[in-house]
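Work Package 3 (structural annotation) set out to generate three-dimensional models for the target panel prioritized at the project kickoff. During this period the team completed the workflow that converts sequence records into discrete structure tokens, so that structures can be stored uniformly alongside our sequence database. As a representative example, we reproduce one entry of 280 residues exactly as it appears in the project archive.
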Amino acid sequence: MAWHGALSLAYRRDELRGQARTVLHDRHDGPLRVLASLYPEGTAVCHNVLVHPPGGLVGGDALEISITVAPGAHALITTPGATRFYRSAGAAAVQQLHATLEADARLEWLPLETIAYSGCIAENRMRFELGPGAEMIGWDLLALGLPASGQPFERGRFTQSVELPGRWLERGVIDSSDQRLLDSPLGWAGQRVLATLWFAAGSALPASRRDALLDAARDAADGDALRSSAGATAVHDGAVVLRVLAPCVEPAMALLTRAWAAWRQIAWQLAACTPRVWRT
């Protein structure tokens, strides 16, 4: 039986005794849920963990996530484990995210990795709309199969899109039979993890601020074992992207985490506050 789930997250900023507080109102239909709101770094930033009890998606499953961040609110969203797309008998499994950031809102979209198992037919769609003054840090880590466990990505197809209207649009299809893409030095170069980190703004970033973000991303990669397969660029005056290829998830996640921490400090003067669920 196919699972269909929908989750709506609405964040707003309240003021209580002169102190800012980001408050979440959520609604769910189906197996996708959000855990209690956490405030490990004070009330201004609301941390949430999304949980999906079935543990993965198979052909015909569909998950829809809708996020709205009201003016001045700041949300950090993550997951307790990998998102898994399992083998399909023919129908696609689809996860769709649509986030809207209103003026001066902030969002950190930091899920753990996505694993495309051999035989999956899957789609992962993400769209982030940013209002004036809104800013976000987001990442995506895609792992093809589990080659270290003897489960390479030998069959299947994974379609992914990341859309920041007016700033950055990327759509791609990864087919297990496309060896030119997967093994060519102009493609995945034989690696099986592609990780992407981005900083995006609803308004143009001053050149000095954009350059500082680029330098921080490049510094995070310097001296790293993955430095030869990592690169950072400003794809638009309102977006900076860091991308890395890796043989497995852990080194890619470590690199992205260092860059995220640096960007947080540079852009928002906030120290990194690592979600506890990443350590469990």
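Residues 249-268 form the longest helix (20 residues).
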